[in-house]
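Hi L.,

You mentioned the student needs an example of a multi-chain input paired with its predicted structure. This one should do, with 1346 residues in total across all chains.
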Amino acid sequence: MKLYEYMAKEIFRRNGIPVPMGAVFTGVDGVAAFQEKTGSVAIKSQVLSGGRGKAGGIKFATEPQDAISKVQELLASKIKGCQVETVLIEEKVTIERELYLAITVDGSKRQIVLLASVAGGMDIEQVPEEQVIKRFIDITIGLQPYATREITRQMGLKGREAKQTEEVMLKLYQVFRKYDAELVEINPLVVTPSQVLAADGKMTVDDEAAYRFLPEVPYVEEKTAVEKKADDLGISYVELDGEVGVMANGAGITMATLDLLQHFGSSARNFMDAGGGSSEKATAAALEILLSTNPKALLINIFGGITRCDDVARAFVQVKKALDLKLPVVIRLVGTNEDLGTAILREQGIESFKSVEEAVTKVISLLKGGGTDVHNS
Amino acid sequence: MKLYEYMAKEIFRRNGIPVPMGAVFTGVDGVAAFQEKTGSVAIKSQVLSGGRGKAGGIKFATEPQDAISKVQELLASKIKGCQVETVLIEEKVTIERELYLAITVDGSKRQIVLLASVAGGMDIEQVPEEQVIKRFIDITIGLQPYATREITRQMGLKGREAKQTEEVMLKLYQVFRKYDAELVEINPLVVTPSQVLAADGKMTVDDEAAYRFLPEVPYVEEKTAVEKKADDLGISYVELDGEVGVMANGAGITMATLDLLQHFGSSARNFMDAGGGSSEKATAAALEILLSTNPKALLINIFGGITRCDDVARAFVQVKKALDLKLPVVIRLVGTNEDLGTAILREQGIESFKSVEEAVTKVISLLKGGGTDVHNS
Amino acid sequence: MSIILNQTTRIIVQGITGTQGQFHTGQMIAFGSKIVGGVSPGKGGQEVHGVPVYDTVEEAMLKQQVDASVIFVPAKLVKDCALEALEAGIKTLVIVTEHVPLHDTLEIMAYAEKQKAEIVGPNTYGLISPGQCKIGIMPNNIFMPGEVGVVARSGTLSYEIVYQLTGAGVGQSSVVGLGGDRVVGMSFIQVLEKFEADPATKAVVLVGEIGGNAEEKAADYIKGMTKPVVAFLAGKSAPPGKRMGHAGAIIERGKGTFKSKVEALTAAGVSVANLPWEVGPLVKQALAQGSEKVYG
Amino acid sequence: MSIILNQTTRIIVQGITGTQGQFHTGQMIAFGSKIVGGVSPGKGGQEVHGVPVYDTVEEAMLKQQVDASVIFVPAKLVKDCALEALEAGIKTLVIVTEHVPLHDTLEIMAYAEKQKAEIVGPNTYGLISPGQCKIGIMPNNIFMPGEVGVVARSGTLSYEIVYQLTGAGVGQSSVVGLGGDRVVGMSFIQVLEKFEADPATKAVVLVGEIGGNAEEKAADYIKGMTKPVVAFLAGKSAPPGKRMGHAGAIIERGKGTFKSKVEALTAAGVSVANLPWEVGPLVKQALAQGSEKVYG
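Structure written out for the whole complex:
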């Protein structure tokens, strides 16, 4: 789960990482007073996508009226398709230089990695890799002060700048561990004449650890209503814009199914990995989600492992009865309890395929042919 | 630093280890009220030495007047030579069985070790070693739940008894780590019909970590006034009852010096390891401590490593001038800056030895011969 | 022959009394795996499918000789059970459970390194040497003993590929699912090394997907392999920037794209199949060429 | 020859700009040790006795080939500096600093085990191969090159014993101070193994003291040694139950007493000296007998 900048910064602040003085607004109430108290301010749209600065999502003001109108302007705008609902107004700080700092996990090394660069700021993604220092952290000893000294040495920082940056690194690592983060990022970490502070803040926490999140971790809804419903069922679901509703079990096979639809000239309405071990009830709920997006056809591709084919078959029969399906549906069913599943479908007059090639080409021919449910014909 | 039972239990309680309901008293005020509220109570002398129960330091009462008189009795008593100044009064608990639990460090394994036994209670030191389960803990992963399950399995505990004991172990380990403990011990850990609780509590914290002790760690003065003064100077000092005041640098050589005094028929007034790297000023202060215990003679045995012989020589000259020493003093001086030290002493007409044998036999002959300072003769 | 598992491998099941643990213990026994014990705290003394249940791994290992363990416990308990197996001296550990918190996985991996143990998973269907032994949850009936090693990141997709292989008459020496999480124990390269060294394996199929750089790294290793490798990759049609489930399918900074993976593998001499049912024929072709190379 | 150190050992000093670090760097150089660098955060670019100072150990190791490091930093900083040296790949680490918190030492030891490094100390005077190299704070002038290895728990007492040896004309191959803390890195046994394997060492002197069971454990090992061992132990006169400084001199449950140590060592064939000045003669006697045994 991604946190908004203002949430990440609140967590940083609680954990001793300096951030600019700021306040959060969802309307103009209090904006004038805050600006007057603070002086020159930055007004920052709170959106989860990157590249906000370049998209015009950050404005500056030095007068109360100007601040109000810019808040209004931002709250009326969209950044990369997302409606701005909140702004963070912060004191403007004197920037001597902009650094970059992030901690995440390197999957191929199976280790935590700290990234640091003196080329912080908006274009960090364009910075050549050799200008980004990578330091792997052994989780059994954690990030120790000596490692931060070596990092600042490689960055070429000296004196106060180095010491304060080292402090921030140590605290950022604590945040990373304490909050089960997948990513914490400060870009830029700005050096002012007196301190270094987090001028921006990104934080992604690990949903799998949600049960042990500290109470100060807020909940952020990033999903569409349908995606959220799927999520509650433990299903990975992403809305796409094609024509065939797809349900499969396993991310890889789902992607491969989408690839096949594309290969044979169609496209998917969604990505749905119904996961392993889904029960009959969960499968039925997943099917209802699929239908709610009005696809032109359904393709169910089940390779039973933990998922049992008979569960899927029973669920499909139940949904079909309840909803009186009119669209073409093709089912491919192999693996655990395959014979049982096939038999349940056959009892209801529904045919299933063993071959994924046949299933995919069948659903496409049905689509092109006009949309009747052949299995029931 | 050893903590009193009531202090250890307060730390246990804060960290989720169940302890009997109790209150601390240094006089009889409130004793009657506490007994009336609680019913049957145990009144426990708060002393740092073991074997308190057998020494009569624990009494029981079921009536207010009886509680008061037993508190008075204990506060007027000594346990193994220590005046009882505080009592802990606790509810009496129903004991189904008594377990033993401790966590300490095994120096030869360089690891933390948990000790557990179903033979808890007063005579744990007599329990054969095979009845005490020893489990080493890798500090990089800490004590994990699975290890506690294996320990209770080996103890033969089942069900609730096992689960609650496992909980206590996990929390006791947290206490051990969080408070920089050298030892945490619960003897007995009593099983009551509803819970397991720490009926006694011992805790020794590592003085070297005093700078980072949590605020809830109290300070316990265990030393004599002179020992405390030495401690403040960073000197290891133990009062003994012999005749020669000894100062040396290093615990091993100090012990060896004491052994030599004994071997040649005398005895030491103290153990004083003035440590490595002591400055002239600290050395002078150490000498003053020695003199304050009125030894019949002084033996200074310095093998210079970090300690420099010239510092010791200058300090001795200074103290000698300031205090007008009348007792016999023998100085043995070798090692770093030995020539310089010897020269400084010689300038003041003081002779020093290179041989420890000569120095020890000399101080003894002076003692027997009547107590003049030969170095100045 | 095969890698990691064979007919003598002695296995314990952690979480054997749970629904999944019970079901798959039965399935593994039916496949011929030697399940010598199960672990379930507080359930010691019971039996599951005739297999004795112990309270702890240490107890199981006191009473049985054990080569490998498979974990079926809920995600919250995985770290504890994995560390338990590792401390007790298990050197091959398969973690089937999905949804294990990332930081827990990192701690498990660090301790496994210290204990010099190999971990497959988390979030894996396990590994199998057809005709000999399986550890995990894969369906029993799609595999066929043979001489092709299969290694995959994704679970069900590797069943699909194995199904295609078996359908084409191409049997497997061993099949390994690395697990679908961002951090997993064994990597493509570690499994490829074992296949390269295994006399019973004549060719290898690698099943990958977009996201991460595991396939690119594998390609580097494959350059030095003597055995032919065929690959199939999922995610060609995925729109950039959308996260497709747990698959690591986050396309970032031009790395981990379908294109970069195909290029890296092709450059390493790997035949990359366009469609799942092309894998079998490509493997046959590679084996035929391989025989020519060696014997012709 | 000698153990651990010789004239080619390249050493860095952590905490080189502190008072002790500076003084003992000078002393080590004067003795002939190859001090190739020092580390002192924020002081990089300076020099101490002509030795270049670096900001971090990693920087030092980029610029110098390094075999060993010695730590002189304050107790609070020891853990950080020790982990730094270990992560950077130092395999021989000497921690001179005293008053290191026990839990810090435990963490250092666990990481050293992982990194397969050897630690001497904390709270040690270091180690020395007379005529070749020293790392630590021992006085330079009491040692004499020779063929007797010395290993001791206590610092100054081992100077005393070396002084007696040198006075008796008995030179030393290497002298190792294990350190006076409750938990230290290298043990008697590890050093005895090295002496046993070192062709230049013909006999060993073990200097122990009451408390703990290190001497008893050493005795077990000595039973299998081919080289003669002479011991001296301190603490015969210590009253039970009094803690004598940092020496581990806590006498508990009848273990670690003077008597139990003398008995264990004597049973292992060790000659235990009663008085410090008996050590030299006992070693000479053992060497004479040893020669007889081997050549006679």
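You could point out the following to them. Confidence is low (pLDDT under 50) at residues 371-377 of chain A. Residues 248 and 333 of chain A are 10 Å apart (CA to CA).

Best wishes,
N.
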